[in-house]
Design goal:
With about 450 residues, this protein is an alpha+beta fold. It has ten helices and 27 strands. About 15% of the residues lie in helices and about 35% in strands. It starts with about 35 loop residues before the first helix and ends with a strand.
Length: about 450
Amino acid sequence: MRKPKASTGSVMALGLLWLSATVRPVAAVSAVPESFAAVAREAKPAVVNISSTRVVRVPGSTGDPTEDFFRQFFGERLPPRLQKQQSLGSGFIVSPDGYIVTNAHVVQQAEQIHVKLSNRDEYDAKLVGADPKTDVALIKIKPRGAAPIVRLGDSDALEVGDWVVAIGNPFGLAETVTAGIASAKGRVIGAGPYDDFIQTDASINPGNSGGPLLNTQGEVVGINSAIFSRSGGNIGIGFAIPINLAKHVIDELRSKGKVARGGLGINIQDMTPALAQSFGLDHPTGGLVVEVEPGGPADKAGIQRGDVIIAYNGAPIQDSRQLTVMVAETSIGQSADLTLLRNKHELTVTVQIVEQPAGPRARVERRPSKGWGLEVTDLTSGLMRRYDIPRNVRGAMVQQIEPDGPAADAGLEPGDVIRQVDRQAVTSARNCQQALEQAGNRVLLLIQRGPVSGYAAMAR
């Protein structure tokens, strides 16, 4: 079971009939169910046990104590050896011909995938496709006859406080049923760029990964994915991927084996109160453009570093994550209107959406700043190699930070490169120091941390 490191946009319509779901209105007041037996009885035949095997490299050792002695005291190293590693999880069948939904972390990089049904039928499965960004995967078996299926529901209709039922194979114990409520929606836990989890207190433990979270009508409203725990066991905080987020992913995996998402060719970050003040906003809102890919769609549309995107096709943007989701769900080749704030003036540009690269874009997180005390040095080739700074970056490197100083409060760290001071480029330590001395009580910095750039605001 994956542990997190610590909402919803429009969902594209499905093109496949086997993913259609009947939307049922949620009653204003629901009575406490006397039993969840009917829900469990209907869904259990379609919930499967998944075991996968992958080969990993481990430090070389034969278990000989003499060998361990020589390695410890004389520094002798053995080459790594290959070892098989098994993973257990759950899944649920969504089509009579044997398509099964589970978590990407259950089956990714697996050499063998084995599926066991509730009627004890067993099958070898093949991986159709996996999407690590949402932790959704699709596998396929060849069932003997029509396979039992679950119905997919509407996670948007699920309300906080509604009853939910989780079915899976915690710790390898097959067909376990637990119940609870939807504790929260739209949770962001740092698992990926499209975090939008349903939080539940229905017991979810290792082995439940990939199993269904059901409403009281027996419809799947989520895919059990993660737990928050210090011990590895359930403490009443589990997370499930909303099925409305997963539907499009499942459809894409089935038809293409991968998920094609829209992109703008930019890197963005959230606004903080300090950054909002620096950019002339009354409160933090929108997505702040940090980098624009040369020749990309945003560059061609005239979007610049420092622009604040406040609306997408007329819909207000509250934070960078919301914008990322909305762009990702836009069809490749379609045009979108972006409303920007540039130097406190509002303008609208039209951008053609392209397919975003497979790799995730890293982002720099900044804390709200309160004040500055730092020493900078000239940027040398040796320092650039040491801190993984791209060759084309120019600026001054932060050498030292006072622990209680203003730069530390703004989130700066040794090894950061200051590229701009109040939007003016700096090219040396002296140039940077002069710019800081001439600044007022508040200054906006563009910094580079490794391969990632971002803005930080300092005040004193």
